[in-house]
From TrEMBL:
<feature type="domain" description="Methyltransferase">
    <location>
        <begin position="42"/>
        <end position="130"/>
    </location>
</feature>
<keyword id="KW-0808">Transferase</keyword>
<dbReference type="GO" id="GO:0008168">
    <property type="term" value="F:methyltransferase activity"/>
</dbReference>
<protein>
    <submittedName>
        <fullName>Methyltransferase domain-containing protein</fullName>
    </submittedName>
</protein>
<dbReference type="InterPro" id="IPR029063">
    <property type="entry name" value="SAM-dependent_MTases_sf"/>
</dbReference>
<dbReference type="InterPro" id="IPR041698">
    <property type="entry name" value="Methyltransf_25"/>
</dbReference>
<dbReference type="Pfam" id="PF13649">
    <property type="entry name" value="Methyltransf_25"/>
</dbReference>
<keyword id="KW-0489">Methyltransferase</keyword>
<dbReference type="GO" id="GO:0032259">
    <property type="term" value="P:methylation"/>
</dbReference>
Length: 200
């Protein structure tokens, strides 16, 4: 599943970057960055074209970018000048390192059975009260689609996953339309999750 998805991005990188690098993510990024301290350290977890890494850098944030696809990592490096970490979601081992994690249209490629463990890693990588943004195609489909593995989510399925991750709580869940030209009929599920503060 993972190998096929990464293979897709490695072989379709130019077309994918062309179709996504100009997408206007402003309102979604704003909802996330409003909860991250100015100049904070942010992980772009599945950075793709590098579009959002660049936007966050320009806004003054200290950005760390990660992607398992070599072609996507190369695209981000070319766009941003960052050195991209090339690793799988399940290999994230940072602890208390980030004020925010931005996982836009990336964790949707993780099989549902692996998602809780991946979110635990994300939670541990956050500082106390840190914020994790995730987005999924809206629905209940899981499987191969267009050469990649997709795990679609709705409000019920997402909350069910989050409830199984001790240390994460839901800050906000909402839907939005796809911002790419000609795809406004496609819906996305967005969520802001927070690492709970330990109460003394």
């Amino acid at each position: 599943m993972r190998d096929a998805t990464i293979g897709y991005y490695d072989s379709h990188a130019e077309a994918f970057v062309s179709s996504t690098v100009g997408a206007d993510m402003g309102s979604l990024l704003m909802a996330f960055l409003e909860l991250v301290p100015d100049g904070g350290r942010v992980l772009d977890w599945g950075c793709g074209s590098g579009r959002d890494s660049l936007a966050m850098m320009r806004a003054g944030y200290d950005v760390v970018a990660v992607d398992l696809s070599d072609a996507m990592a190369d695209a981000t490096e070319a766009l941003t000048g960052l050195t991209v970490r090339r690793e799988a979601f399940a290999d994230l081992d940072d602890e208390n390192a980030f004020d925010g994690i931005w996982a836009s249209a990336s964790l949707l490629h993780a099989p549902s059975g692996e998602l809780p463990g991946i979110l635990v890693r994300g939670m541990r990588a956050l500082k106390r009260n840190g914020v994790l943004y995730v987005s999924f195609k809206y629905g209940d489909f899981e499987g191969q689609r267009s050469g990649r593995w997709f795990n679609d989510m709705d409000e019920v399925s997402l909350r069910s996953v989050i409830e199984g991750v001790d240390g994460l709580e839901v800050e906000r869940v909402w839907t939005s339309s796809d911002v790419r030209p000609g795809r406004s009929d496609e819906m996305w599920l967005n969520a802001l999750l927070r690492r709970r503060q330990v109460r003394g």
